[in-house]
């Protein structure tokens, strides 16, 4: 890696030196001390030396240019004079850069030099001054060689166009791909970003390995302008939920959550991932649902040689491990250990499937009540350390003359958390805010994640390849909560317990192919077919509310939700496919494609509640005592309270076609323009055969949208881009937001309902970015962006009880800037060569335009930020690597305060306050095949706090986590 003198480095960081055209100076080889001798740098206008004919034999380097032998110290030692070879390797037919082409320089003192080109075909080498033989080669192309002379402290540019090996020569039988760019590596990810046509950022599995992150949600915190909510939901440029689209290997992912339009990233363990890329400007091949950006998750592909890895890890948390936690007595056995219900929480067989439990004879109702699981009180337990296991095996081989690659991986993770905090409610009285509820809560969670990946690819011929991918992920969470404190609604101190068990799973399979139809015009066809099923099962959630009198006696409170059993199952089936063809006509690169994605979703729930009979007297005692077999039928009876809103059927079908073109406006400027037509039909009807009451509603939305996109890329220098982009995109309302369903938020203790009058949000997006890639793993970038929203959807407080609903605002806008730097401190001085630093800062300002309708007039704040919009996001990491000692990284992350609920009727907006997070990670190779990793996460242990005015409505301390991991790769 070339190093700049410290003065030039500082100037480059502020963009001054480059504006004046100051060329970077290249450092000598690592074993030679650098010399400070500006006078030896030739003028910038010095032309490169002419290239001699290819048949000229290489010349020996001049003796004067050899490094001086070590002698007694002198004031100014003579440096080794070096130069730079750079250029591009291009397919002579398609004029497209060739990735991973091998560049060899023969005759260099100290040994020949070998390197490979980037994904866009560019390369850059530091070589001692002299005359050498340069050879360029890559599979399926004719090798080229020539003799070159490298000037002292100057540059020579060699651009070569390679011709494909003619098919009729028969060489196709002997061609074997011996290497590929490993997109798991940081340098490869930066190469992809540099060659991309859109504004994008990414994190590689190599970078993730330097962090304590265990899943995709944690890892995304490291990306520019990305924040993660609740540890699993991504916000891009301060926007979350409907404004973030998640793709898995190019396919739109459904959400397994009934109440959020977001894919929980804790479903994806990091060991199953290759890269995660955030597209911040839009292009026509992407789904039209685009606001903050599109998150593209790419799973690990098969390696080019045999790989096997086995890993084990454990971790502990200061507020959980070794402390008193809460558990459900039903969580036992091998299935419970893996995150699956063992059958104890299933809907009892006595419950009829063809009718509601209502207006039955007393004996049948009593049998049903007695069959209900009688576990209501969380048990205390000492929390044990967390556990993680993972295994991976892969290879590329030949079977029957066909190249076959495969990768299989699996993982198991068990994680225990304890949260202790406060929750409350706020009411307004005149100009004053009053806290109506003030409860302390303890939550204990045991979560198990099980995941597996299988990826197989076959080269059918030199021009045809096909692959199949299967992914499975399952998360089971056993959550138990106990809250105690004063509640204004009950007018007394209350004791609330909740037991819940939720399983979330994703099964995804994809068949895909790539075919080179005509090499001369680079016509390539890609296609894919996919099917995905997501499920969420909430199994027998139980809620119990007691009031506590002045003597400390607990009394069962007979009110909705108290003494309740609740089951809910969500099934989402999504399938579709698409085809994409691209080719070249003259200087024009054309691309067109089509996509169909069909999705159906069913949600079904049943709720049952114990209610006192006319014989009920004393209501004290535990839930197990109150609802025991001797009490059911005499003191309490069971009755079904299912609502019409507890079940719905919905579908979202999307049909799309797009076309785009890329044109080289000049040698350094390329323009990419296209448009996407997207038709969507969204429908939903609700109603339950078991309902006792509620509202039946039918919602139908049909949209036809033309979504243009334009990107302009100016390669100001081979390692520098200036990008500009504009697009028009949309964000559709999610199912729950459209339907007037009531569902209960147990954490915040409130009802949330939808709004069938919501309309689709449309967004104008504009981006501008300057980016510089001084070496394969360094980048400096400055970006600016603007977004104009038409009819943005917001979550607003609906009444004085802090219940919530959704509505369209008239409009809104965001203006923001981003700064990113990723480099080595060796640029300042060789003493710091082992230190690398990465930092990014995003600053955003948003404003919403409020309408004049009756609901909007109730909003408290008329001049405020958009719902969910953070004003800033900061990431910083400092790393030190010495292979003989350790690789140590310190990471910092913080996001600005954001609105989580919009206030009405004088109630202030509710803000989530900033949380500063610091992680420290150290890893060391104990031997060639064994790596040890230590991490301390959330060192500062700051509280997570939600404030409404000057009153805290929810807060907890997450604790400091310590983890230890061991990876074995024989």
Bin the helical content: under 10%
Head-to-tail CA distance between termini: 30 Å
Which spans of ≥5 residues are poorly predicted at pLDDT below 50? 1-72, 167-182
Would you give the CATH topology of the largest domain?
Maltoporin, Chain A
If classified by CATH, what would the architecture of the largest domain be? Answer: Beta Barrel
Tags for this model:
970 residues; Immunoglobulin-like; 2 domains; 5-stranded mixed β-sheet; 10 helices; 50 strands
Topology:
Layout lengths: L5 H8 L2 H4 L62 E10 L10 E5 L6 E4 L5 E7 L1 E8 L6 E7 L4 E3 L2 E3 L23 H10 L4 E5 H4 L7 H4 L6 E4 L3 E4 L2 E2 L3 E5 L2 E2 L20 E7 L13 E7 L7 E11 L6 E4 L5 H6 L23 H10 L7 E4 L3 E14 L2 E28 L2 E30 L2 E24 L4 E27 L4 E26 L5 E3 L7 E22 L2 E25 L10 H4 L9 E5 L7 E17 L4 E18 L11 E20 L2 E12 L3 H4 L3 E4 L4 E4 L7 E12 L6 E12 L2 E5 L6 E5 L2 E14 L10 E15 L4 H4 L14 E11 L3 E10 L2 E4 L8 E3 L4 E11 L2 E8 L6 E5 L2 E6 L4 E8 L2
Can you offer a commentary on this structure?
The protein has 2 domains: 6-173, Carboxypeptidase-like, regulatory domain (Immunoglobulin-like, Sandwich); 337-968, TonB-dependent receptor, beta-barrel domain (Maltoporin, Chain A, Beta Barrel), CATH 2.40.170.20. Helix content is 6%, strand content 53%. The chain has 10 helices and 50 strands. The strands form 8 sheets. The chain has a 22-stranded antiparallel barrel. Strands 9-15-16-13-14 form a 5-stranded mixed beta sheet. A hairpin with a 2-residue loop joins strand 21 (402-429) and strand 22 (432-461).
Quick rundown:
With 970 residues, this protein is mainly beta. 6% of the residues lie in helices and 53% in strands. Mean pLDDT is 80; it is low at 1-72 and 167-182.
């Amino acid at each position: 890696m070339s190093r700049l003198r410290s003065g030039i480095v500082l100037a480059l960081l502020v963009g001054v030196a480059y504006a004046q055209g100051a060329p970077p100076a290249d450092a000598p080889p690592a074993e030679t001390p650098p010399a400070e001798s500006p006078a030896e740098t030739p003028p910038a206008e010095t032309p490169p030396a002419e290239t001699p004919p290819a048949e000229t034999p290489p010349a020996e380097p001049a003796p004067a240019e050899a490094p001086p032998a070590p002698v007694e110290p002198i004031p100014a030692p003579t440096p080794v004079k070096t130069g730079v070879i750079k250029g591009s390797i291009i397919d002579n037919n398609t004029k497209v850069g060739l990735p991973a082409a091998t560049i060899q320089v023969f005759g260099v003192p100290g040994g020949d030099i070998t390197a490979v080109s980037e994904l866009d075909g560019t390369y850059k080498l530091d070589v001692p001054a002299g005359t050498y033989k340069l050879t360029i080669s890559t599979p399926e192309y004719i090798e080229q060689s020539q003799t070159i002379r490298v000037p002292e402290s100057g540059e020579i540019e060699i651009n070569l166009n390679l011709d494909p090996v003619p098919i009729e020569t028969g060489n196709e039988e002997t061609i074997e791909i011996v290497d590929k760019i490993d997109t798991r590596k940081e340098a490869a990810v930066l190469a992809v970003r540099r060659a991309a046509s859109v504004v994008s950022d990414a994190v590689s599995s190599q970078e993730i390995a330097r962090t304590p992150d265990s899943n995709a949600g944690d890892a995304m915190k490291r990306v520019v302008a990305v924040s993660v909510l609740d540890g699993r939901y991504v916000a891009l440029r301060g926007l979350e939920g409907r404004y973030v689209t998640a793709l898995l290997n190019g396919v739109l992912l459904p959400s397994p959550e009934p109440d959020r339009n977001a894919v929980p990233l804790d479903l994806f363990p990091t060991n199953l991932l290759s890269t995660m890329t955030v597209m911040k400007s839009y292009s026509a091949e992407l789904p039209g649902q685009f606001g903050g950006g599109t998150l593209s998750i790419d799973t690990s592909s098969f390696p080019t040689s045999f790989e096997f890895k086995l890993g084990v890890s454990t971790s502990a948390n200061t507020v959980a491990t070794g402390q008193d936690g809460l558990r459900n007595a039903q969580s036992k056995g091998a299935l419970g250990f893996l995150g699956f219900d063992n059958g104890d929480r299933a809907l009892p067989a006595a419950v009829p499937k063809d009718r509601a439990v209502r207006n039955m004879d007393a004996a049948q109702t009593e049998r049903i009540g007695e069959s209900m699981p009688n576990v209501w009180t969380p048990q205390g337990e000492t929390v044990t350390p967390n556990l993680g296991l993972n295994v991976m095996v892969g290879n590329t081989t030949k079977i029957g003359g066909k190249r076959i690659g495969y990768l299989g991986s699996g993982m198991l993770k068990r994680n225990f958390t304890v949260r202790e905090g406060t929750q409350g409610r706020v009411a307004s009285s005149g100009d004053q805010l009053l806290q109506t509820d003030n409860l302390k809560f303890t939550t204990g969670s045991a979560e198990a994640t099980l995941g597996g990946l299988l990826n197989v690819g076959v080269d059918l011929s030199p021009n045809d390849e096909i692959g199949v991918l299967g992914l499975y992920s399952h998360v089971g969470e056993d959550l138990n909560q106990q809250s105690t404190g004063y509640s204004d609604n009950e007018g007394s101190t209350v004791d609330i317990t909740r037991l819940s068990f939720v399983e979330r799973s994703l099964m995804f399979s994809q068949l895909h192919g790539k075919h080179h139809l005509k090499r001369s015009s680079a016509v390539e066809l890609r296609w894919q077919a996919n099917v995905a099923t997501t499920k969420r099962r909430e199994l027998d959630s139980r809620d119990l509310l007691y009031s506590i009198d002045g003597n400390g006696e607990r009394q069962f409170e007979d009110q909705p939700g108290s003494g309740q059993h609740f089951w809910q199952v969500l099934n989402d089936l999504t399938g579709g496919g698409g085809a994409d063809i691209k080719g070249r006509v003259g200087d024009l690169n054309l691309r067109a494609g089509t996509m169909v994605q069909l999705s159906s979703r069913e949600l079904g729930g049943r709720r049952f509640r114990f209610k006192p009979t006319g014989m009920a007297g004393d209501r004290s005692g535990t839930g197990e005592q109150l609802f025991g077999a001797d009490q059911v039928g005499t003191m309490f009876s069971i009755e079904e309270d299912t609502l019409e809103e507890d079940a719905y059927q919905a579908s979202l079908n999307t049909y799309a076609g797009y076309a785009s073109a890329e044109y080289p406006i000049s040698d350094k400027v390329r323009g990419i323009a296209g448009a996407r037509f997207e038709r969507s039909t969204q429908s939903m009807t609700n109603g339950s055969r078991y309902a006792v009451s509620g509202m039946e509603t039918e919602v139908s939305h049909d949209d036809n949208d033309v979504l243009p996109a334009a990107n302009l890329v100016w390669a100001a220098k081979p390692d520098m881009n200036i990008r500009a982009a504009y697009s028009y995109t949309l964000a559709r309302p999610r199912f729950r937001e459209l339907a007037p369903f009531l569902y209960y938020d147990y954490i915040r203790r409130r009802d949330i309902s939808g709004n069938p009058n919501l309309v689709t949000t449309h967004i104008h997006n504009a981006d501008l970015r300057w980016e510089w890639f001084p070496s394969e793993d360094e980048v400096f970038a400055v970006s600016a962006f603007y977004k104009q929203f038409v009819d943005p959807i917001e979550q607003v407080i609906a009444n004085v009880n802090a219940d919530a609903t959704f509505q369209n605002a008239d409009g809104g806008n965001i203006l923001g800037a981003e700064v990113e730097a990723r480099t080595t401190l060796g640029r300042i001085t060789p003493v710091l060569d082992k230190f690398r630093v990465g930092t990014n800062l995003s600053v955003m300002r948003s404003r919403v335009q409020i309408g004049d309708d009756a609901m909007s007039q109730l909003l408290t704040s008329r001049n405020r930020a958009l719902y969910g919009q953070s004003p800033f996001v900061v990431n910083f990491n400092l790393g030190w690597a010495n292979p003989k000692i350790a690789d140590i990284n310190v990471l910092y992350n913080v996001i600005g305060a954001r609105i989580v609920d919009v206030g009405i009727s004088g109630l202030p907006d509710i803000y989530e306050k900033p949380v500063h997070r610091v992680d420290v990670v150290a890893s060391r190779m104990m031997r060639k095949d064994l790596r040890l990793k230590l991490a301390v996460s959330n060192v500062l242990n700051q509280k997570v706090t939600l404030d409404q005015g000057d009153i805290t409505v929810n807060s907890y301390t997450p604790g400091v986590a310590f983890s230890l991991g061991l990876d074995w790769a024989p």
